[in-house]
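re the bet — no i am not wrong, look at it urself. input seq straight from the record:
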Amino acid sequence: MKRHAQTLTALTVLSLSPSLVFAHSATGTGLGAGLLHPLMGADHLLAMLAIGIWAALQQGSLRLAIPGAFMLALLAGFGLALSGFALPMVEAGIALSVLLLGIVITATVRLPASAALALSTCFALFHGFAHGHEASGSLATFAFGFMASSAALHLSGAVIAQKLRSLPALTRSLGAAIAASGLWLLG
């Protein structure tokens, strides 16, 4: 139980650190920048973990379909940014994703498959667009880097959810902390 409380505390402190809120700053180029981008801002970090947690709370094939759809849409959003497409309110979309993912975890929401996949796809487009907007160096290695980090964060979120399966109140509390972070990001 102490370890779970430490994880929750660390995520909360990280999400409230103003210098780490948004990942959109120079972190190098190419693979290194791509690997670090999802890890350097609480907005991306919390959303990626939340996707993994939320997916792990689902039944059957949605456990893999949610992060899978997210990853494909993440790459699509990246491509949209590189093509010069103008996606409005990217930061607000990212913050809203953190808020809503926190809410669905807190409420242990099980949406119909089509709604869950649409929601995760929509969120991923904003995150991927932000990654594309900040891409530097080799675009292919940058994309590989942020995709690898995102997948690792999804997996980490799923592991957290599995470890907390016998402690649903703690899972809901973690979801509430994520939602509160999203609300703060919107402010």
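see?? The chain is about 75% helix and 0% strand. told u. also The radius of gyration is 15 Å. so pay up
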